[in-house]
Amino acid sequence: MTPRTPLGEIAADFSDPAAEALDWATAELLLAGAEVFWLSSVRPDGRPHVTPLLTIWLDGGLHFCTGTGERKARNLRQNPEVVLTTGTNTLSEGCDLVVEGTAERVTDSAALRTLADAYIAKYGADWTFEVGDGVLDGEGGPALVFRVEPRTVFGFAKDPYAQTRFRFPAAA
């Protein structure tokens, strides 16, 4: 899959006059390096659900896994629209990122093998998976794997304060 390059623009109304837009290369490094993201999904009754999880940034998308019976898996069966959030828990340093998109199942064995290797490379041997039939099998049992290709990404820099919106061109 060929990653799409987004168009970034600073939101002047929400940014320090001296601020510049975050560049996409920096945003990608932050997405790839973040250890924990917060996934927001929607329960069948419309209430929000938020949970922390581990992600892999690969080929222009965030990937995560979840047990087949977990709340987030059940939510995604009904409504695949999600928001993934990461950043620093500080007021005056770092950059927070918000990724909006649609979670799509990954079932291809080669893609799952690549992701299993990426989990070990990023998180260590405690996150070892075998490739099962359309899932990753780990210590906790089979896990569904999802990919979120960003539709919009917001970057919130903190010194100086700056809000950048990245909009992605439609897939060809």
UniProtKB/TrEMBL annotation:
<dbReference type="InterPro" id="IPR012349">
    <property type="entry name" value="Split_barrel_FMN-bd"/>
</dbReference>
<dbReference type="GO" id="GO:0005829">
    <property type="term" value="C:cytosol"/>
</dbReference>
<feature type="domain" description="Pyridoxamine 5'-phosphate oxidase N-terminal">
    <location>
        <begin position="30"/>
        <end position="151"/>
    </location>
</feature>
<dbReference type="Pfam" id="PF01243">
    <property type="entry name" value="PNPOx_N"/>
</dbReference>
<dbReference type="GO" id="GO:0016627">
    <property type="term" value="F:oxidoreductase activity, acting on the CH-CH group of donors"/>
</dbReference>
<dbReference type="InterPro" id="IPR011576">
    <property type="entry name" value="Pyridox_Oxase_N"/>
</dbReference>
<dbReference type="GO" id="GO:0070967">
    <property type="term" value="F:coenzyme F420 binding"/>
</dbReference>
<dbReference type="InterPro" id="IPR052019">
    <property type="entry name" value="F420H2_bilvrd_red/Heme_oxyg"/>
</dbReference>
<keyword id="KW-0560">Oxidoreductase</keyword>
<protein>
    <submittedName>
        <fullName>Pyridoxamine 5'-phosphate oxidase family protein</fullName>
    </submittedName>
</protein>
